[in-house]
Design a protein that fits this description.
By secondary structure, this protein is mostly helical. The protein has eight helices and no strands. The radius of gyration is 18 Å and the shape is elongated.
Length: about 150
């Protein structure tokens, strides 16, 4: 019932066609993004989902999906967050959010104590020449790489 109310709220707040515009702060994307940033995850998710239903290929679709994943992470739901991050990668592979999603998946692997998976993911991210997270991924990859055996 709470989700239905949030969707109704999103629809009632977005009164004009311009409010549904991908860049509008009044529309579901703008409101959802703001709510995620404020830590109001339960309220944000239905708004972002409403945006995606209306604009599945909109200018902010990859960002909306990414913010849903961030909300799920904020709720501590690592599995659902990972599903959303994988959807970002599959649906918007060339987007900045896909690059960021790979990074967050690597962090989830670390949180789940899966160092091999995390190292593999960081290696992939580190190979992206122009990726904004390449330096961080390179550093974390080094951290996860076991040192070579010492020769006496």
């Amino acid at each position: 019932m709470a989700c239905f109310i949030c969707v109704l709220l999103a629809i009632s707040v977005a009164r004009s066609p311009d409010d549904w515009h991908p860049g509008s702060a009044k529309g579901p994307f703008g409101q959802g993004r703001q709510l995620v940033c404020e830590g109001h995850y339960e309220q944000a998710i239905p708004l972002l989902q409403a945006y995606l239903r209306r604009f599945p290929n909109g200018r902010n679709a990859s960002r909306a999906r990414f913010f849903i994943a961030k909300a799920r992470l904020g709720q501590g739901d690592l599995d659902t967050a990972a599903e959303q991050l994988n959807l970002v990668i599959q649906s918007y592979p060339e987007s900045l959010e896909a690059h960021k999603s790979h990074y967050k998946l690597a962090l989830i692997a670390m949180l789940k104590s899966n160092a091999d998976q995390a190292q593999q993911a960081f290696t992939t991210i580190a190979a992206a020449a122009n990726g904004p997270l390449t330096p961080e991924a390179t550093a974390l990859k080094r951290h996860l790489t076991p040192p070579p055996p010492r020769v006496p």
